[in-house]
Write a structure and sequence with these properties.
Layout (H helix, E strand, L loop, with lengths): L7 E2 L4 E6 L2 E6 L1 H7 L2 E6 L5 E2 L4 E7 L3 E5 L4 E6 L2 H4 L3 H4 L8 E5 L11 H7 L3
Antiparallel strand pairs: 1-2, 2-3, 3-9, 4-6, 5-8, 6-7, 8-9
């Protein structure tokens, strides 16, 4: 299982890459593996402000639908439009081409609840 050290993670299985005032968000390799083949991605909050742990969309796999939770507060400024025609990119490359949204961080965005790679591995039982 791939859990990169340079990312932060939520207990709801989203990963976060913070670059300046922007966070790129996707679901972890563990999450995509548990979901199975992803067939559809829906983002409900594009260009809207979200709070940490707020649902901003969902991913649909062959057998289930799972909510997507914002790991951090901010405004969703972009979604990965390639996922509209190729949602399987989340399964194939969850940390690269499979990113889901970009969030412009609030000035007071708090990352203290996010997990390191080591802590996320413990969270998922590895």
């Amino acid at each position: 299982m791939n859990i990169p050290d340079n990312l932060l993670y939520s207990e709801e299985h989203e990963w976060v890459l913070i670059e300046g005032d922007t966070a790129t968000v996707g679901i972890t390799d563990f999450a995509q593996g548990e979901l199975g083949d992803i067939v559809y991605v829906e983002i409900d909050k594009l260009e809207e402000k979200v709070e940490a742990n707020e649902v901003f969309g969902s991913v649909e796999a062959v057998k289930t639908v799972s909510d997507l939770f914002s790991p951090i507060a901010g405004t969703i400024t972009a979604m990965n439009e390639e996922l509209e025609s190729s949602p399987e990119k989340i399964n194939e490359a969850p940390y690269k081409e499979g990113w889901i949204v970009k969030i412009k961080l609030d000035e007071d965005s708090d990352t203290s609840a996010l997990l390191s790679a080591e802590d996320y591995l413990k969270h998922i039982g590895n």
